[in-house]
Protein: Ribbon-helix-helix domain-containing protein
Organism: Shinella lacus
Amino acid sequence: MCRVLTDQSPRRFAKVSRSVRISGHSTSVRLETAFWQVLEGIAETEGLSTSKLISQLYAEAMELPGGISNLASILRTVCLLYHEERRGGIGAANRA
């Protein structure tokens, strides 16, 4: 097939927990290394620390109807949407 999985280092799939501070409260977020790498890239592009980016994304998600039920899921989705928008994919087309 497309060999996307078999051509990757197993380390990219390893789950890593990190402590972040959101609205003055410490919390732990567990994501696969590949998602942490994308979030670090987004944060760098935005001139933010990864923790600050996550805090801002959390605040933005809380403004959505229904709020936020799972921060890790929101962050994974943000990574996907960011990637799609950079490539001019589905996310960009749906916003137009």
Observations:
- Residues 71-87 form the longest helix (17 residues).
- DSSP finds four helices and two strands in the chain.
- Residues 17 and 30 are 4 Å apart (CA to CA).
